[in-house]
Amino acid sequence: MLRDTYKSRRRRTVMLWALCVLAMLMQLAMFGYVGYKEYRVVEKEDWTIHTMQPSYKLAKSEPETGVYLGGYVLQNPAIEFSMKTFNDRTGRKHGSFFKYVGYGKEFPTKWVEQVKSIGAVPHIAFEPNNGLAEVKDDAYLQKFADEANKAGVPIFMRFASEMNGTWTNYSGDPEQYKETWKMVHRIFGERAPNIIMVWAVLSLPEETIESYYPGDEYVDWVGVNVYSVKYHNDSRLHEADYEDPLDMLNFVYNRFSQEKPIMISEYGATHYTVTDDETDNAFAVEKIKRFYGELPDKYPRIKAVFYFDVNNTTEYNEKRRINDYSITTEKEVLAAYSSAISRSEYLTEVQPVVVQGTEAEQRLTYRGLIYKEDDMLYADMNFFTDVLGLKLEEDGSSQKLVNGNGSVEVDISKKRIWAGYNYFNYIPRYRSIDALPIQQTLEPLGYQVKVEGKDIIVEPQP
């Protein structure tokens, strides 16, 4: 028996060493790869490009400017799960609160009336936790829509969110997901026009996000869930305290914000984690100040944000008993949140659905894929084509960007830039970009480019 135990331990030790060697080889391969001439790494800085979209059509209940304040309190016994108490303690009325509703459960009429009673609108995270096969055009879904319609107020409906990961029972089949989404969208559109369909992902993994997108005509708002934690995977080897929560927004924001209002459907910053068994209020304070303090300026197309006021370490789901995100129990953290949301850009009243289609000028920004080299500012090609609407054309052996003012020949520089977070074992997560110099590309096409600190303002010449 002792010999068997010794052999078993020896095998485990050998396996652990083998995994460590493999991880080191992967790191060496990655660093060698990113250093290859075609994929030179450039320094990531906090640049923001600002431009204007003069004739954008507002989505359902989208405010022309500003950010709806929202929250989640239904797992916080410290405030008796009370929305009113949350408002009182934070010092600001919140315009919306959300609730998880498993597919197959009745429409939460009583809770909706409670939300309405404090002058807010409901946000429902509607989750088919038994898989997409249960979602059908049947009496249940039709009744759910009819009950939602009776509420008489806008309802954010976040259906089947975080499908881009592997932890939900409705992930893994993007085509089935999109077809199911379109069916749900059709039923809600026919029977409950007050419903605002929110297609929401977790900020990671990015690689699968676009494959689940149903298309602009089937989505009202795009949502993203973001959390600030000190460690990933409940492991002290996977430190995450360096992560800027704003970086976690960039992929979704840059991809979708030109067409859709963006909702941060869940955000939380931990002040205690079981991983190191330490209370660190300063960590939560720093992340909340950065996140809420910068959103209105750097991300003007974010139109709603919901704080996740939950102590997960005491929750029923054992796998999530890692972080305490609650703010109403910690004086320093609560003060930081209250101060950050006191800005006038944070809105306490949600617009009615009837504003849909109203034309309004919108300020657009682009983040994360910008760098400076040899005193020249560069941005990824997607900024020029997707945000500014320039066309890339082939002209023999050269490439040109074209607009109504003419064309300019471009010399694309292939780079790699840090995403703002790492893969496991500290392997950096880089994004490949096809970069162009901003001023040298845009000024010949009739744009003015001004640099003020870390802000780059791009405007058509008068």
Kindly describe this structure.
Keywords: Glycosidase, Hydrolase, Membrane, Transmembrane, Transmembrane helix. Residues 9-337 form the GH26 domain. This is GH26 domain-containing protein. This protein has 462 residues and is of the alpha/beta class. The protein folds into 2 domains: 38-58 and 359-462, no CATH class; 60-356, TIM Barrel (Alpha-Beta Barrel). It is 27% helix and 31% strand. It has 10 helices and 24 strands. The chain has an 8-stranded parallel barrel, surrounded by 4 helices. A 5-stranded mixed sheet has the order 1-21-22-17-16. Helix 4 (139-150) packs across helix 5 and helix 7 (281-298) runs parallel beside helix 8. The protein is globular, with a radius of gyration of 24 Å. The chain starts with a helix and ends with a strand. Mean pLDDT is 90; it is low at 1-7 and 31-38.
List the helices and strands and how they pair.
Layout: H1 2-34, E1 40-42, E2 48-57, E3 67-72, H2 83-90, E4 96-102, H3 109-117, E5 121-127, H4 139-150, E6 155-159, H5 174-191, E7 195-202, E8 221-228, H6 250-256, E9 262-269, E10 272-273, E11 278-279, H7 281-298, E12 302-308, E13 323-324, H8 331-340, E14 346-347, E15 359-367, E16 370-373, E17 376-380, H9 381-387, E18 391-395, E19 398-403, E20 406-410, E21 413-422, E22 428-437, H10 438-442, E23 447-452, E24 455-460
Parallel strand pairs: 1-21, 2-24, 3-4, 3-12, 3-14, 4-5, 5-6, 6-7, 7-8, 8-9, 9-12
Antiparallel strand pairs: 2-15, 10-11, 10-13, 16-17, 17-22, 18-19, 19-20, 21-22, 23-24
